[in-house]
């Protein structure tokens, strides 16, 4: 059974998924999810602390989705990457502005976002490296491409949030996937 904190966080995330993330006060958000602002303060400290927790959980769900798509050794890396992109764009349209805002807070060392400094990049690198290694890259190249791929994906999500041009973002991601995950041609045997 989940804790009261986890249930409350789930309610908040569900509310944001249905209504978007905007400038909700703790009182307004508490009323919307059927609790009191005191309970939100008790469990999350501040509005910003609650929002940082929302980002952490949504990121965790995205990593779980990626893990499920790439769980089998025979999963085609290009297909998995394209499927993951298609699945991540929807939540990014809802939570992306919050993600980028709180990422900036983490960069600035604001206390409510400090945990994000270690949870937004590192946990992605090993699974991405594994996928790229399975696609035929040596481990060092795969590790470099994992970090680069994470940056490309986040950059394209940023682009999409600013421009609203889903077609262009999808085309750029397809090009990136083809660039990085297309096996190099083998030289003919001599």
UniProtKB/TrEMBL annotation:
Residues 25-44 bind DNA. Residues 2-62 form the HTH tetR-type domain. The keyword DNA-binding applies. SUPFAM superfamilies: Homeodomain-like (SSF46689). It comes from the Bacteria. It holds the Pfam family TetR_N. Keywords: DNA-binding, Transcription, Transcription regulation. This is TetR/AcrR family transcriptional regulator. It comes from Actinophytocola gossypii.
């Amino acid at each position: 059974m989940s804790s009261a904190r986890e249930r409350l966080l789930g309610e908040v995330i569900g509310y944001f998924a249905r209504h978007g993330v905007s400038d909700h006060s703790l009182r307004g958000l508490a009323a919307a999810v059927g609790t009191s602002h005191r309970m939100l303060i008790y469990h999350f400290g501040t509005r910003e602390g609650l929002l940082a927790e929302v980002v952490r959980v949504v990121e965790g769900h995205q990593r779980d989705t990626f893990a499920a798509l790439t769980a089998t050794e025979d999963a085609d890396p290009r297909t998995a990457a394209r499927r993951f992109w298609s699945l991540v764009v929807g939540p990014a349209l809802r939570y992306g502005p919050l993600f980028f805002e709180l990422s900036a807070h983490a960069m600035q060392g604001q206390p409510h976002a400090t945990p994000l400094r270690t949870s937004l990049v590192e946990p992605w690198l090993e699974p991405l490296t594994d996928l790229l290694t399975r696609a035929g890259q040596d481990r060092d190249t795969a590790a470099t491409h994992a970090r680069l791929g994470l940056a490309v994906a986040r950059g394209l999500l940023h682009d999409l949030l600013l421009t609203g041009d889903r077609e262009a973002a999808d085309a750029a991601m397809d090009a990136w996937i083809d660039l990085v995950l297309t096996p190099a041609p083998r030289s003919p045997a001599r």
